[in-house]
Amino acid sequence: MSITVKGVIAREKNATVELVDVVVPDPGAHDVIVKIQACGVCHTDLAYRDGGIGDNYPYLLGHEAAGIVETVGSEVSHVEVGDFVVLNWRAVCGECRACKKGEPKYCFATFNASAQMTLTDGTALEAALGIGAFIEKTIVHEGQCTKVDPTADPAAVGLLGCGIMAGLGAAVNTGEIKRGETVAVIGCGGVGMAAVAGAKLAGATKIIAIDVSDDKLERAKEFGATHVINSANLPGDPTAEGEDQPVVQAVYDICGGVGTDVVVDAVGVPATYKQAFYIRDLAGRVVLVGVPTPTMELQMPLLDFFGRGGSLKSAWYGDCLPERDFPLYTDLYLQGRFPLGDFVDERISLDAVEGAFATMKAGKVLRSVVEL
Is the pTM of the predicted complex or chain greater than 0.85? Predict the structure, then answer.
């Protein structure tokens, strides 16, 4: 029998979010209903609200979540009632061309719940990233649930569901940072800060954090940055191109006249990508994890792509496998070896999501987390 709970929706583009009654259907054969304990407020949710992802309104927002499995479908075998889980949006199918090639981290056909949640008038809700977790209880496919140590703080480990895993994975999985390498991270929001922490975990010797906020740069030191650069305060010509860019020269100065082995662009605009491209050393690696908007274009000399060699990568969800990575980083967090809890700056109620969006846009927090 369906249940009615409270959830946060975006009814139309740029509209203030609303806390409304949401109908959660009975679970299908492979569906589960999860009682949400905590859900992070992510830039992706703001993008849904503002029309940056699509126009399938109304959206049920929220996706960085942890909670308890409450009800399971008739054929569910992956989890049981009472399991503590982190939700993910990469429930690999095992059948698509990526999975068959042994690359499930690129799965093209991830699973979602078999039925949509609705408003009380029957209007179907599009769940953010197939999850929709700014809600008391949500319905997802069993493969979207990853069991982790139940002693962990839901507000902390829920962040592995998106942004923190994206930045951490960009460093460790996509960037493949090795011990002794040098790393630069452009943009010190939640994703970039997670990349800094990931670089430290991987054993990088120089970790250079780049941002326009001194406050964020000071905080980056807490997560492992050995050097910081405020790119807004550098001498030189801000319109310079290539290796003459002031931020590129600043990195070269730190690294003894060369670039870094790896650069993570956690902003994702043409200007920062150009910085990342030239900041890296010859044959170095650039990882794009910041998400560009559809209208952005990049113009650069093609010869420079050939001449610098190396690799240019995009990190999708930090190239993670939830079943492998979520339990691992939960354990490292509980052991005090990865500062997952330090990303939680404030804990808020379900009716405070709109205010959290404003706080996030102002750059005042790494993560606000809704607790239920």
Answer: yes
pLDDT digits (tens, 9 = 90+) for 47-89: 999 998 889 999 999 999 999 999 999 999 999 999 999 999 9
Using 70 as the pLDDT threshold, list the residues of the chain that sit under it. none
For residues 213 and 173, membership in a common domain is answered with yes
The enclosing H or E element of 229 equals: strand 227-230
Task: Give which of 90, 162, 89, 165 is closest to 328, Cα–Cα.
Answer: 165
Structural domain boundaries enclosing 144: 3-161+339-371
β pairing state of 3-10 and 59-60: antiparallel
Name the β-bridge partners of 5. 22
Pair type for strands 126-127 and 59-60: parallel
Average pLDDT, the chain: 96
Residue 329 covered by a domain? no
Do residue 88 and residue 22 come from a single domain?
A: yes
Tokens of 170: 């960009």
Specify whether 233 is located in the same domain as 349: no
Does a structural domain hold residue 328?
no
| 231 φψ region: left (φ > 0), alpha (ψ -120 to 50), beta (else) | alpha
